[in-house]
Design brief:
477 residues; alpha+beta; Arc Repressor Mutant, subunit A; four-stranded mixed β-sheet; two-stranded antiparallel sheet; flat
Length: 477
């Protein structure tokens, strides 16, 4: 088969590196944006956040400047006030939040290993114990088969042991805190925790239920459990109350106590002044950035030098790149600021009734395309703003994407937000009898009576999104 070459044209749309970087800047929430600013200031010495009263401006030219023909006049324009600085008229020193120092924590595996010091273990047993701890996941479980762990010990640790020894060491790991750690499934996790409690009548019954009728308990088949143990509903209720006090994810409990609590910084603030909405952009999203005067002066020094060496030309080329990078970054920050403000302004105007009342039922159906059409931008840009930004409202700090929802037509023929329907559904479930929870069919009928004719499968979807299980699992004695 002969090889041939041919030429053909192909049209393709690609984003430039600058456009990609701009999209990334738009997506960053306030704190990460500040970190990006700091990183850029550290990496590009031509960028400054201090006003040094520079009276020269770096102008980027469209034509490429050859290395051996650098024209300083193309880069310096005298007696001009820089117009590339980005400012915000609502920025003040009050917007500067102080940094919160965080203490470095101990990881979950380290915490578990530190407890091994209270047990007498020989060298091989300690290696096995630490290996088992290394197999514990974030929830506190060991999900791997012990047979596989025996093989891995031989291949990776050069420790040859048997299943019986590993099981013996596992019992030691399961004695560590938090209670329930090292379990291989939920049933074992609950039993480990129950074994540490005082043997009251309710605890003993709870152990028997978990050991003998765990599946029936998980499916809330309470009638069968009462018949099997010949107990009253009150006795069963006491046992269940003890089980409900247990932690099904002991590892997660440690992680939640040791992790750094995220501090949400709103990107916008909406206030009601004289019955009208006022939107402001957090000043921390509008920093004042400048091109460093020192680097501009380097160009002037190069211009005044009569004989220019190769090293001087190389240095000026480097400076040129840094100045271009600084100019672009300043413009990108300014464009980010404008994009954020115009997007949030469109959302605020679209949902004006909600922001004035705070009533979820005043939220209009709104999708990304609605806002994209208003501000004449791409849907992906609106999505980047909405997915990670927060707004401080008179009714609390809200994630912007929560204002978006699909629509449906109610019995009056009006379009309503699916968030409104979910709110009504949540109220119905909260008011139901816990001894006889409502099925999805009954929930659908009640919603229809309230003017929301939606199918049972849609009710099931909304119920799951709200975090409610099926009726059988919501049942309580």
């Amino acid at each position: 088969m002969a090889l041939k070459q041919s030429l053909f044209y192909k049209l393709s749309q690609k984003l430039s590196p600058q456009q990609i970087q701009l999209m990334k800047l738009i997506q960053l929430p306030t704190q990460e944006f500040e970190e990006k600013i700091q990183q850029e200031l550290e990496e590009n010495p031509a960028l400054s956040d201090m006003n040094d009263n520079a009276d020269t401006e770096f102008e980027q030219q469209e034509e490429e400047v050859k290395e051996e023909e650098i024209n300083i006049e193309d880069f310096l324009a005298d007696d001009q006030i820089p117009d590339y600085r980005t400012q915000s008229n609502n920025y003040s020193a009050d917007d500067d939040d102080t940094q919160i120092p965080y203490a470095s924590g101990v990881s979950f595996p380290q915490y578990l290993k530190s407890q091994l010091a209270t047990y007498r273990l020989d060298e091989q047993e300690r290696i096995i114990a630490e290996f088992l701890i290394g197999s514990v996941d974030g929830s506190g479980y060991i999900r791997r088969d012990l047979e596989d762990i025996v093989d891995d010990l031989a291949f990776t640790q050069n420790v040859y042991t048997d299943l019986e020894t590993v099981e013996k060491i596992l019992k030691i790991v399961q004695k560590l805190d938090p209670a329930g750690v090292g379990a291989r499934d939920l049933k074992e996790c609950l039993l480990i925790q129950l074994d540490r409690k005082e043997n009251t009548i309710a605890i003993v019954l709870a152990k028997r239920i978990i050991e003998e009728y765990f599946e029936h308990f998980a499916k809330k088949h309470y009638k069968k459990i009462m018949e099997r143990f010949d107990i009253t509903p009150e006795q069963l209720k006491e046992a269940i109350q003890e089980i409900e006090k247990l932690n099904p994810k002991p590892g997660a409990a440690y992680a939640s106590n040791s992790k750094i609590v995220a501090h949400v910084v709103p990107d916008f603030a909406i206030r009601i002044i004289d019955g009208e909405l006022e939107l402001t952009l957090n000043g921390r999203n509008a920093p004042e950035l400048y091109v460093s005067r020192d680097y501009s002066e380097m160009f002037q020094s190069y211009k005044d030098t009569k004989e220019k060496t190769k090293s001087q030309k190389d240095a000026v080329q480097f400076i040129k790149q840094k100045l271009e990078g600084a100019k672009w970054f300043i413009e990108a920050v300014k464009q980010r600021q404008n994009t954020l403000y115009s997007t949030m302004k469109a959302i605020m105007d679209y949902q004006k009734e909600y922001f004035l009342s705070g009533d979820v039922q005043d939220l209009k159906p709104m999708i990304l395309k609605d806002i994209a059409d208003i501000i004449n931008m791409d849907i992906s840009t609106v999505s980047r703003v909405a997915s990670s930004k927060y707004v401080d409202t008179p009714y609390g700090t809200k994630l912007i994407k929560e204002f978006f929802s699909e629509s449906m037509t109610n019995s009056d023929g009006d379009e309503v937000s699916t968030r409104e329907i979910k709110k009504v559904l949540e109220e119905i479930i909260a008011a139901e009898s816990k001894k006889k929870p409502l099925t999805d069919d009954k929930l659908a009928k009640l919603l229809k009576e309230k003017g929301y004719p939606i199918a049972r499968r849609t009710v099931a979807k909304y119920r799951e999104q709200l975090g409610y299980p099926v009726a059988r699992l919501r049942k309580k004695i």
